[in-house]
Design brief:
single chain, D-Maltodextrin-Binding Protein, domain 2, five-stranded mixed β-sheet, alpha/beta, 10 helices, 11 strands, about 40% helix, about 260 residues
Amino acid sequence: MHTHRSAIAGVVVTWLALAPAATAAEIRVIASNAVRDALSELVPVFERQSGHNVTVILGGTIDIARRVAKGEVFDLVIIPASNIDDLIQQGWLRVGSRRDFVRSAIGVATRPGVLAPDISSGSALRASLLVADSIVLSSGPSAFYLLELFERMGITESIRSKMMQLAPGRSVGEALANGEGDIGFTQVSELLTVKGIVYLGSLSDDVQHITVFSIGVHTAGAAHEAARSLSEFLTSPVAEAAIRHSGMEPAWNAVRR
């Protein structure tokens, strides 16, 4: 861990040495829970090296998009790319400010004591869901995809009574740890550090779905230049190690979807 953090800090110094000096600013960020761990590593480093102060507010995608669309101002918004595009089109975020941050896969976990289901393939997952006692889904993009997947699998009616979709912002991992379900699905990054659950891994390639979480700069943010600097920092090679450490992949070199 020490080596990991030292490597990040060393590259940050190099990155910031090339950036123009700026007056310290207060940067307000609202971000999906999926990127919490990556931000918890990267933001303090950015603050130390830049002199800016960053406040991060976490939440579910639905609530974040709703808050921004109702007029709340945050300097940076980090949610799925499609939602960022919608907010740009609506005029809340700056045109051209979208930067793709991370690529996030869907993971699976159970509560302790539950017989581990087979998730090695789509067909194995289908069979496991049919015999599961209870299934927990998030309120975010993973759930939207999974509900469509269950329809394609032809099992929606068979498992409907066993499914529980959490309220926006609630943690699938914490729900499992509290005994609220047997098997749960959400972004990998939201499961890796939760205590009291058994993380099984990500969905198999044949049924996996990748969500790109992107960054947008608010049109009315008071700290526009500092926010743009933070956005550039989070989508530079400096951030790659922390992103991978949190269970995701950097997205800025990927083709937009």
